[in-house]
Write a structure and sequence with these properties.
The protein is mostly helical and 196 residues long. It is built from nine helices and no strands.
């Protein structure tokens, strides 16, 4: 229980103040234990960070697998939008999303490779989720016959751009830009059969 609480408190603190500005004393205080007691669970702050990184990856994958659910009878647009909406909502509204963005934009140098690896694993999971929808959309002639790598790149770039926007703008602006981004993306890939 304490082990899990250390990870959760560390996620919150790393998200709010960053890795370098979070001390072991801060973590211990947040957990409600004395600093030496942390060593019963982790050898160092680095070990805590690596455990947080692994937990973060798992939570992002879980949100993709568990929260992104749609009916097979839904339109291609509705399926794609749900993936886009749920993921961007999670990244905007959760501490885990806040930490994921912080680590992606400002990775602690000592962990740059590990963070990049997690980022690529998360992107691969999104790709695995979205690719069947794109393929089905093309088979049903709802999506233009474009190279699938091009479609995936456009989708990922749209989401990454919104995460950067959120760093600088408030939620109202982000909501408008999210809506505009989706409308342009969908208009660019759909066929006449894809709907209005």
């Amino acid at each position: 229980m304490t082990h899990y609480k250390i990870i959760q408190i560390s996620i919150d603190l790393f998200a709010e103040t960053g890795y370098h500005n979070t001390s072991l004393s801060d973590i211990a205080r947040g957990v409600g234990i004395k600093k030496p007691s942390l060593y019963n669970h982790f050898d160092s702050k680095d070990a805590i960070f690596l455990a947080v990184l692994e937990e973060l990856k798992q939570r992002v994958v879980d949100i993709i697998l568990q929260e992104i659910t749609y009916n097979d009878k839904d339109t291609t647009e509705k399926k794609l939008y749900q993936i886009f909406d749920k993921y961007t909502e999670w990244m905007t509204d959760s501490k885990e999303g806040q930490l994921f963005k912080r680590l992606t934009f400002f990775p602690p140098e000592a962990f740059a490779e590990e963070i990049k690896h997690v980022f690529l694993q998360v992107e691969a999971q999104i790709t695995e989720t979205i690719l069947p929808v794109l393929e089905q959309g093309q088979a049903e002639k709802h999506i233009r016959p474009m190279d699938r790598e091009t479609l995936l790149s456009a989708f990922h770039t749209m989401m990454d751009g919104l995460f950067l926007e959120e760093h600088y703008y408030g939620k109202d602006v982000l909501t408008d830009r999210k809506k505009a981004s989706w409308e342009i993306f969908w208009a660019g890939i759909r066929t006449d059969e894809g709907g209005v």
